[in-house]
Design a protein that fits this description.
alpha/beta, binds magnesium ion, binds guanosine-5'-triphosphate, Rossmann fold, Gyrase A, domain 2
Length: 453
Amino acid sequence: MNLLEDTIAAIATPYGVGAISVIRISGPASIAITDTVFAASSQKKLAEAPSHTIHYGNIIDRNGDVLDDVLVSVFKAPHSFTGEESVEISTHGNPLICQNLLSLLTEKGARLAEPGEFTRRAYINGRLDLAQAEAVAAVISARTDASLKGARNQLDGLLSREVAALRDKLVNSASLVELELDFAEEDLEFVDKTGLTALISEIVNSLDNLLKTYRFGKVLREGINVAIVGKPNVGKSSLLNYLVKEYRAIVSEIPGTTRDIIREEVTIDGYLYIFHDTAGIRDSADVIELEGVRRSRSAIADADLILFLSDVTQGIDKSLFDELIALGDSGKIVSVINKVDIHPQHKVTGDVYISAKTGVGIADLFRILREKAVGSSVYTEKNALVSSLRHFNALSEAKNHLLNSLDSVSAHLSGEFQAVDLRRAVNSLSEVIGEVTSDDILNNIFQKFCIGK
Ligand SMILES: Nc1nc2c(ncn2[C@@H]2O[C@H](COP(=O)(O)OP(=O)(O)OP(=O)(O)O)[C@@H](O)[C@H]2O)c(=O)[nH]1
Ligand SMILES: [Mg+2]
């Protein structure tokens, strides 16, 4: 496989029947290859067409028959998504037409594209930096308005610009420190040490602020996993049903009704929540129920937030509460007192009081969920957002290198130590935007894309 000399082709629209489908071709021979299968109604060759023009005509198959009448869009290098000569063919939306056209194109010299290969080429050709290329996938997979906005900002380069600005400041300082090392004999000083320390501390601070957005970025992208747990019969399934507005999970007055985990997604105020109704936790002789309880415990371990439900008429089960705290982080637990319609003047203390039957208190519950999940971080459209683990790790590394460099200054170590740490920090920052990136990292990123992207 040659990364850039091959001409690649793929179906860019979802597989299936639709009004139209689009086949995308990119690479040096894309226009020439299309010309071999396309008869324009104008009788002109695409090779002569200016960039960004659309042409109507027929695709002619190997027997000389018309496969379909199509529209062909022509993009000349470097003014295309990939930066290469590219063509998009809009056909009628029948998978058969697409498959036949794709095999015609491969007969004429195109190769089937790998997952994410169009975007990878856009990155290699400098049309996007790596953080932006990753944002392409995020834009496609965003499921809430808030996460779409975050991904959109990343695609527009908000994160890249912020990281690049920090990196440029560091590159400057690193070069000065290195220059001073070169002239060590002469005892020249290029660097104002106090100024440098202040600058590094300032960058550490900016990195911290970026790192803090990660939790929120993850929430935007993946949604918030919420486990609804408690003793049997406290109303967990009733709460799930209330939240999804349908009779999803079986509710009964018999304790031990739910055994499997029931997973439902709900968007509330623009955030995606994934609720997991679980089996009530208790000792049981029933092997099936025990398996349910085991699953409940594993849902607790995986959850971002735990709704610990108690029945107002029964009070809080202290030993289960202690177990939850031991299993997870106590900051994740919301103690919810249910069935307050029965006992409005409750004496049980919890974080929020609800009735899964009447809906009382559910708005308060939403408010608490949101506070716990998103915290005080209010996403403004001007903020860069760290939403990928790869970025989070690279930024954390950069921060650690900078902290090391501050340590070596205060320990009066030779400037070489500081220079090394500054360079390492520069490299970590460059990794985010992809200026120093190994093939492994690229393969890893792009194989998660779909074909045609
Ligand atoms: N009055 C009143 N009854 C409720 C409320 N929530 C649940 N119930 C009743 O409590 C009983 C148990 O409800 P479920 O939702 O099945 O309880 P669960 O926690 O899922 O129980 P298991 O699946 O057995 O662990 C049912 O009879 C519900 O109608 C409530 O807010 N008020
Ligand atoms: Mg249940």
